[in-house]
Each structure stands twice: as C-alpha cells, then as structure tokens.
Amino acid sequence: MGPSPGTDRPPPAVARTGGYVPLRDYAVIGDGRTAALVARDGSVDWLGLPDLDSPAVFGAVLDADRGGRFLLEPAAPYRSERRYLPGTNVLETTFVTPQGTARVTDALTLHDDVALTPMRELLRRVEGVSGAVPMRWRVQPRFGYGNRTTRLARRAGVPVATAGADALALCSWEAGEPRYEAEAVTGGFLTAPGTTALLAMPFAHQEPLVLPARAECAARLERTCAAWRRWADGRVYTGRWRAAVLRSLLTLKLLVFAPSGAIAAAVTTSLPEHVGGERNWDYRFSWLRDSAFTVAAFLQLGCPAEARAYFWWLMHASQLTHPHLQVLYRLDGGPRTTEEALPWEGYRGSSPVRTGNAAAGQVQLDTYGELMQTAWLYARAGGRLDADVGRRLAELADLVCATWQEPDAGIWEVRSAPRHFTQSKMMCWVALDRAADLAEHHLVPGRHLARWRSTRRQIATFIETRCVSPRRNCYVRSAGSEELDAAVLLGHLYGYGGDAARMAGTVSAVGRELRHGPFVDRYSGEDGLSGPEGAFLACSFWLAESLARSGELARATALMDDLVRLANDVGLYSEEIDPATGDFLGNLPQGLSHLALISAAHAISAATATSADKHDTDDTDDTDDEEADG
Q1: pLDDT range class, residue 6, cuts 50, 70, 90
Q2: End-to-end alpha carbon distance in the chain
Q3: CA nearest 63: which of 355, 342, 357?
Q4: CA angle at residue 163 from 158 to 166, to 5 degrees?
C-alpha cells in the first residue's frame, strides 16, 4: 500500500491570523446540492444556500469580520485532530483540552422519505469523550453575501434568522440556552463522558421552514452516514493509492450538483492563487476543461449513473450555445456568468472578491477536443448517442475545421492577447480524430469525414512545424515561442498522434524546467496578470501520468507518492500549493486536482500491471526455452 494522507501527524494547535486559518485547515461537507467549509477549529466559514453557487450565508473565509460563520469550539485552550468517518463525507473533529476531550460530528444531511425534511440541514453533534469540556457556539448568518438585512426572532422557542424569502433556524438540544446578540445567536454548555448535544440548522428558500425534532435529526445523521458508505462501497479501485483515490472520488461526489448532474470546479470563489494578489476567481461553475477527466473517472471507478448524468447535462448546456462552446456553464446549464466584485476584504486581504466568471466569454478552442473526447469515452463505454447528439457532434467537428487556425485564450484563460496555443491545436486534432472514429462506427453522421481527416493532417503539420523547439526537441507553449506549458502534456494523455520522440522530449523538458521537487508550474512566460502564483497541482499529476505512459514507472510512482503526501490531513487538495511553504492556494477543494489524481493513479496502476504481466510472460518464455534446450 502507498502512503495515505494525514497519517502519523500529531494533533496541531489551532491558530488564526487576522481572523483567518490556513486554507490547508479546511475540510468540506456537502449534500449534493451545496457544500460547506469547516475549519480545524470547528468554524463553518463558507456555506452557500440554498445551492452551491448561491450567495453565501457564511463567508468568513473571504471576510473574517463581515462574512458570517457558525462557530463551535471549546471555551478553553485546545488541540484538534479530525478525519472523515470511513467511506463518508461526514466530518469528525476531536478537541483535546486540559479539562477533557470532546468529539464533534458535522454533516449536511441527505434527503430521505422517512420524515418531513428541511430543504437543507446542517447537523453538528457534540459528544463528551472524557472529562468536562466547556463548549461555546455562535451562529452569525449573513444572507446574500452580507448585503441583506438579517432579522432574528423566535418561533416556538427556536431562534430563527430571516432575510426576504430565506430563513434558517438553530435548533439545539443539551447545548445551552440560546442568547441573542445584534446579529448572532450564541450559547455554551459543558460536556461530560457519555453526553450528546445536538445543534441543527435547517434552511428554507421560498418555502416553509421545517423545525425538526431531535430524534429525527439523530436518525437522519445515521442514515446520511449509511448512504455515503453504501455509495463508497460500490467503487472499484484496488491499486497502490486506494485511500487517496477513494477520498478524491468522494470529494468529486460532493462537487456534483445532484439536480442537474453538473460537477463544479470547486466549492468556493476568490480564494487567492497568491495571497494579496488579484488572481481570485469564482470556481462555482462547471468547466468543459474538466469534462473528459470527469467521465473517465466515473467510468473507471464504477459510477455509471454519475457519468451518464454528467454527460447529458453537458449535452443540454452545450445545446444552449450550439455550435459554439463556452468555457464554462452554470450548474443549472445556463450560459450567463456575469462577473462582479463584492465589497469584501478577501482572504487575508486578497481582493477583489468576485462572483461570476468573465472567462465564459473567452474563445478557448481546446474545449471542442474536451467535449468530443468526453462523447467518445461515453460511447466507447456503451453510452447511447441519439440522432440529435450525433448531428450536433458532427457540426462541432465542422466548426473546428473552420476555426482551428484562429488564436485563442488557451486552457489557462490568459487575459493577455490571444495566441496560437499548442495545447489548443492538439485538442482540435483530438476533436477531429474522435469525430472521425465516431463516424467510422456510425455513431455520428460521416458526410464530412474526408474533410475532418484532411484538416486533422493540416493541424498536425502546423503543430509539428510551428509549435516546436528544435533545440530541445519538444513542443512549446505557443507557435513561434520557446516557452513551455505543462498543459501540452494533455496531448500525450489524450493520444495526440504527433512525433513520439518529441512528446518524450516534452515530458523531459517539463520535468526539467517547470518542475521543482513534486511541484510543477503551469507555464513559463506572461499571461496578462500581475503577481506570482503557486504550483498548479493538476500539472504535477499530469506529469506523473505522462511518465507512466512513457514507460518511466519508477519515476512516476515516486512522484505520485510525493503528491499524495501533499494532501491535507483529511485528503483534500486545493488548486495550487506554495512550494516554499506548502500552503494551499486557490479555490478548494479543487475538482481538477482530484480528477488528475484519479487519472494518474489509474494510469500508473494499469502500466504497472502491464509491466508485471510482460515480466511474467518473459519469465515463462525463458523457462520454455530452457526446457527446450534441455
């Protein structure tokens, strides 16, 4: 077994600087509709309601003073350690104090048909383990990113906060008498061995607010744990990094928006790629960049229902802008993603804090290859492509033939002038290659098959003559440049049919010039934005997978072992890591980081098995030769 995250580490002390914890100190819980960030000190610092992409009710991760939070911690010095309950997205935090130990279990409960269920429900259970631990809690909601007035009142003795059509309550049992402040409800209590306190926060949007009974909440928490375990038990991966792969898959399940099947890039917005910088983006949308990795991961790990739901969401969303593709779509499939700035401080002063994402309006030609690869994977796995989808895919291939020669913003959504990015051209090649294969299997109309093949050859010629460095015998970031781009490795992973020696040279060049230990920079050169950024984790996993596909299994395995150790204590990854400090940077948990981990683990395991089979075959052949000689 390979190393698993969070092992052999002492429970760390909890510290906030200017009201903020390190991003590495966050875990995530969710219910398939929204998700919350829970800090190591027990504070829920991010929660959009009613949905993942809705305005935040708790947003302290982006403004410690004005964002709002749900605090739950010992009222005494403490250390904490935590884990997810096995096979679940239910978080367990253990607080150790001089007076004793208490255990907090956090979950966004899953809907069931057993009782009248709140629209959304955050449950927090506090168990006394040893001694007597003084606990304190504080619920400070800030509806609509704090832009709406919060009104506090009582209903049937229960604290209720409202703003327009939104309402939440704080139901508590054995958690002390609620006290009211100007815009918060607080309380405190003392644990003892064997005692259990429960705090439930039901939420409603444009519907009656349900105030649950204690027994219903306790039972719903157990059913939520059981439902997650049933889902996790059906997943298939037995390789070296099983714990990391399963946690990544459970994290991706949290990012799936159940009503539509879309998968969000991350739970959060505007967590910085450089603290104090401007590289702060809203990732609560679904990117076509992630589509092929998403379907591949779901199919590889035994999640056909999720693969099918995502594929048909993608077909619905892309139909709204057909034949052109947007870089990203809303979780409900809508195309509008207007970018605005909030009057918030930003994480540790990193502003602006953005909602919406202007990248949706960029031209990124690689998206056509991503979508066509996704359809090809889905069809190869036995998924049905109806006549309308087949027609639309053929029309996308025709559009690629007409537009591939245009410059674009590239996969990294640069805000500098468009360029002829190599990875974009490679993905145009992939789009036409997959379209041709689908046509040859009579899954899409093949009237223009000859044109697709001819244009595919033209694209390859452009790449092999304009997008290379003869000196290094590798592919470069864009036509005519000498810069490198780790995204070019995706051409290798998706089977771009270029020069094999040049692709091997690219893997070597990325490892030599963009890699620093286990960390890999996205690219060299400018991108139209000021300030530095961290190392992009997905690029490190792409390099590990590329090494495996190039036959360098020992190097791939060693890099993968290093990357698995970079997860936080509960196995999560952000978008980037600061190589100098190990701090998480960017939005989290980052879907692409976890998708890239799954893809690399699967590829390395497959290559290892193939190598072992070949070794066994060679040994058998040697034995047969010896017997023949005898």
Answers
A1: very low
A2: 41
A3: 342
A4: 75
Q: Evaluate whether 444 touches 390 at the Cβ level (below 8 Å).
A: yes
| CA angle at 540 for the pair 538 and 544, rounded to the nearest 5° | 115
Give the helix ranges, DSSP H, for 181-330.
Answer: 214-233, 242-255, 291-300, 304-319
In this structure, what is the dihedral angle of CA atoms 437, 438, 440, 443, given to the nearest 10 degrees? 170
Collect all residues with Cβ–Cβ distance below 8 Å to 24 and sequence separation of at least 6. 568, 574, 582, 583, 584
Per residue in 551-579, pLDDT tens?
A: 999 999 999 999 999 999 999 999 999 99
Taking the C-alpha atoms of residue 385 and residue 375, their distance in angstroms, rounded to an integer, is 8
Closest CA to 257 of 54, 101, 395, 43: 54
Beta strands in 476-594 (DSSP E): 515-516, 519-520, 535-536, 576-577, 584-585
Q: What is the pLDDT of residues 114-151, one digit of tens each?
A: 667 899 999 999 999 999 999 999 999 999 999 999 99
Q: Each residue of 114-124: pLDDT tens digit?
A: 667 899 999 99
- Give 25's DSSP letter: G
**Locate tokens 């974009």: which residue?**
424
Length of the chain: 630
| Arithmetic mean of pLDDT over the chain | 93
Q: From CA 483, how far away is CA 492, in angstroms rounded?
A: 18
Strand-pairing partners, residue 536, are 576
Q: How far apart are CA 236 and CA 276, in angstroms?
A: 42
For residue 318, CA distances in Å to 292, 295, 326, 378, 495 come to 15, 16, 8, 16, 24
Decide which of 108 and 183 is more confident: 108
Nearest to 322 by CA among 333, 332, 331: 333
- Name the strand (E) or helix (H) holding 432: helix 422-440
- Check residues 238 and 77 and name the one with the higher pLDDT: 77
CB atoms within 10 A of CB 134: 15
User: Tens of pLDDT along 313-372?
Assistant: 999 999 999 999 999 999 999 999 999 999 999 999 999 999 999 999 899 999 999 999
CA 95, 96, 102: angle at the middle one, nearest 5?
Answer: 50
Tell me the C-alpha to C-alpha distance, in Å, between residue 240 and each of 3, 234, 461, 493: 8, 18, 40, 21
**Cβ count near 83 (within 10 Å):** 15
Report d(CA 124, CA 198) in Å as an integer. Answer: 6
Which two three-digit tokens encode residue 304?
């056909």
Q: Which residues contact 612 (CB under 8 A, 6 or more apart)?
A: none
For 196, the token pair is 């259990």
